[in-house]
Design goal:
The complex is a heterodimer of chains A (314) and B (273). With 314 residues, chain A is an all-alpha fold. Chain A is built from 14 helices and 2 strands; from the N terminus they run ααββαααααααααααα. Chain A has a single domain, classed as Orthogonal Bundle (MetI-like fold), CATH 1.10.3720.10. In chain A, helix 6 (136-146) crosses helix 8 (172-200) and helix 9 (204-212) runs antiparallel to helix 10. Helix content of chain B is 72%, strand content 0%. Chain B has helices spanning 8-31, 36-41, 54-62, 65-96, 102-111, 117-130, 137-141, 149-159, 163-171, 176-187, 189-205, 208-213, 222-228, 238-271. Chain B starts with 7 loop residues before the first helix and ends with a helix. Classes of the chains: A mainly alpha (314), B mainly alpha (273). At the A-B interface, helix 1, helix 2, helix 4, helix 5 and helix 6 of A face helix 1, helix 4, helix 5, helix 6 and helix 9 of B.
Chain lengths: 314, 273
């Protein structure tokens, strides 16, 4: 049917935009294709968001037949309870570290690979990406081996210099750093490839023209390349926070369970702890709703800078 | 041209990064073939002096390894087929039809990518429990299927198909399901393979949702089994844990070796807006 040239021509010549069928069945057709995804989305995403919001106004333990309405008490608790305050502060520390490790450093490396090493980009891309294929549980196991204060390879190495690996699981701050490093091991190559692709899309002729004019390379990067690549960069920046805060859940649960004294917990892990360990469903739902609102704000930033640019380009 | 020739310093930095991220994996493989004694005393000896399969055999005695591999494979396969199938259908709806509320519906789909799992985990847990699907492969697979990234990636791939192809077929009065099956699907094969590979690997490694749903050891997937071998109090038997981790990384590595080019292309395209 595709070989019928005259009909293809006819179709091209009579281009009147995609046709909308006037039969009622035709109008319903696209929704039929959407149905499976929409159903999954409705059952496992839209309705649950609403139900979590509903649960956030109650005291409940996940099992009891009755729920006690408490109004906004759970939300007041999110911001006044000292443990929650600690966890919110930790979340900010996580965000700062994740942005440095999983966004700024990969961006720096992708600039080097794109502008300073000539050809040879392929092998770096292929090799950097490999840890992205592995489970964060594997990463958590590897890092707790390497950094084991008694028998780990780093401890043995440092022993020759009379130094020790600190008991990092006893310190919330050090545990947070290690947990962020584990996610860095996993997503570094992934983010590197996204950013490198963005840099590769910067029009060659602009760069050549700048080079002909003798503008120093660092100024070209700062004044031309970075602004042109803003869309991809902000996308990866937001992704780093949104995905990173969810990724750290795995090493937290495997290595520290949020400890010591909630020192390495964050908003998401604390939600899980409240829901499935402490059975404080109302508290957990309020925390989950606050997290949801924060992520929504990030989504709007993404739309404003990234999707908006796409529309301009169209 | 912006590139220079004097760049050895940069190559050395990049190679050091590769060593930093790859050496732990290399030593993990090597240690999985060492006895506990040897792994402790000659920790950085790359080739074991007496390579042994002991750890793998011990693992196989302690846990039902075959069953866990089967659990993980089955879960990842169901999730992958579900996500690729529903994703293709939805992408086709967005790409080939004009309908009321299309922009809004698309926006809602894409926005769900930003919803943190904690916001939906309690209701989803209650639902799966009510459906009696705890400790069940369907129960662990179903909520994972709800993911709009496939739709986005497939739309990007469909945008590259010349619209003249599908429009001429439409003019000929060919029903949309045949356009979908006979034109779109065959042309989309590379992206179906790469998106499918990415989905499979992600689900194979999935940890968060399985920890909530799978409590019975016989229903465990590999990441949960590995977690049981890591003790937060210290005293982890690392060669044993590493043997299990090696088993876990082999399928993703094999998939990557075969489809590396497709996979990297899909990842790249996901960032370009």
């Amino acid at each position: 049917m595709l070989n019928n040239n005259s009909q293809i021509e006819k179709a091209v010549n009579s281009r009147s935009g995609p046709r909308v069928s006037r039969k009622p069945r035709g109008r319903l057709l696209p929704f039929l294709y959407l149905l499976p995804s929409a159903l999954l989305l409705l059952v496992f995403m839209i309705v649950p968001i609403g139900y979590t919001f509903y649960l956030s106004f109650f005291n409940w333990n996940l099992i009891a037949p009755t729920k006690q309405f408490v109004g906004l008490a759970n939300y007041v608790n999110v911001f006044t309870d000292p443990t929650n305050q600690k966890v919110i502060l930790n979340t900010l520390v996580y965000i700062v570290l994740l942005v440095i490790l999983n966004f700024i450093i990969p961006y720096f490396i992708s600039l080097i690979v794109n502008f300073f090493i000539g050809k040879m980009k392929g092998p770096y891309k292929i090799l950097f990406f490999i840890p992205s294929l592995f489970s964060l549980v594997v990463g958590a196991m590897l890092f707790s081996w390497i950094l084991n204060p008694v028998s780990g390879p780093l401890a043995l190495f440092l022993r020759d210099f009379g130094m020790k690996v600190p008991q990092w699981t006893n310190s919330g701050a050090m545990a947070i750093v290690v947990i962020c490093l584990i996610t860095n091991w996993k997503v570094f190559g992934y983010n590197f490839i996204l950013l490198l692709t963005g840099l590769g899309a910067v029009p060659r002729n602009i760069l050549d023209a700048a080079a002909l004019d003798g503008i120093p390379k660092l100024r070209v990067i700062w004044n031309i390349v970075l602004p042109l690549n803003k869309g991809v960069a902000i996308y990866v920046f937001i992704l780093t926070i949104v995905q990173g805060l969810q990724y750290v859940f795995t090493p937290i649960n495997v290595i520290t369970q949020g400890g010591p004294y909630y020192g390495s917990s964050n908003l998401l892990y604390h939600t899980y702890l409240n829901a499935f360990v402490l059975y404080k469903t109302g508290n957990a739902s309020a925390l989950a709703t606050v997290t949801f609102v924060i992520f929504l704000i990030l989504l709007f930033i993404e739309i404003k800078f990234v999707e908006g640019r796409k529309r301009d380009a169209d | 041209m912006l590139t220079e020739k004097r760049n050895w310093g940069w190559h050395i930095l990049l190679i050091l990064i590769i060593l930093a991220i790859m050496l732990p994996v290399v030593f993990m493989i090597s240690n999985s073939f060492k006895t506990l004694q040897e792994s402790y005393h000659s920790i950085l000896q790359l080739i074991p002096s007496q390579p042994t399969l002991g750890n793998y055999l011990t693992l196989n005695k302690q846990i039902n390894l075959l069953r866990m591999v089967a659990n993980t494979f089955l879960m990842a396969m169901i999730v992958t087929l579900g996500k690729v199938g529903t994703g293709l259908l939805a992408a086709y709806a967005f790409q080939n039809f004009h309908f009321k509320g299309k922009r809004l519906i698309y926006f809602i789909f894409v926005a769900t990518i930003f919803v943190p799992f904690t916001t939906v985990m309690i209701p989803n847990y209650l639902l799966i429990a009510k459906m009696n699907l705890l400790n069940n492969v369907i129960g662990v697979a179903l909520p994972q299927m709800c993911d709009a990234t496939g739709i986005m990636l497939f739309i990007k791939a469909m945008e590259k198909i010349p619209s003249s192809l599908t429009e001429s077929a439409k003019v000929d009065g060919i029903p949309s399901r045949r356009i979908f099956m006979n034109i779109i699907i065959p042309l989309l094969k590379p992206s179906i393979i790469s998106v499918g590979a990415i989905f499979f690997i992600n689900s194979w490694n999935e940890y968060v949702w399985p920890t909530l749903v799978l409590k019975d050891k016989s229903s465990f997937t590999l990441p949960l089994a590995l977690q049981n071998y890591i003790s937060s109090e210290g005293g982890t038997n690392f060669p044993l844990a590493m043997a299990l981790a090696v088993i876990m990384i082999v399928p993703p590595l094999l998939i990557y070796m075969v489809f590396q080019k497709y996979i990297l292309n899909s990842i790249s395209s996901s960032g370009l807006k």
